[in-house]
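One thing: can you check what follows?
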Amino acid sequence: MSEPVGSSPDYRGMSHEQRIEALLGLERRFARLHADRARLLAAVQADPLPNEDGTSAADKEWAREEVALVLKLSTGTARAIMRDACDLVTRF
């Protein structure tokens, strides 16, 4: 059941089985998006941030602050999801 991009299916016109199948499809897409997000956050965490003199900065505070801003989270929450993303990507 493929819908054009940007359109919303009419769930009222579906059978129960079709609704369950649609729900399963959504969950699969969510899982892929969450996996992509984890890989991207892990990559951001791994980015070397240059100092003004061009050397690499070990402190990732700026990256965390940027992630927090984009995701509308606190810096502490951004730090936690970036750490979790790195664990998921590197350990699992």
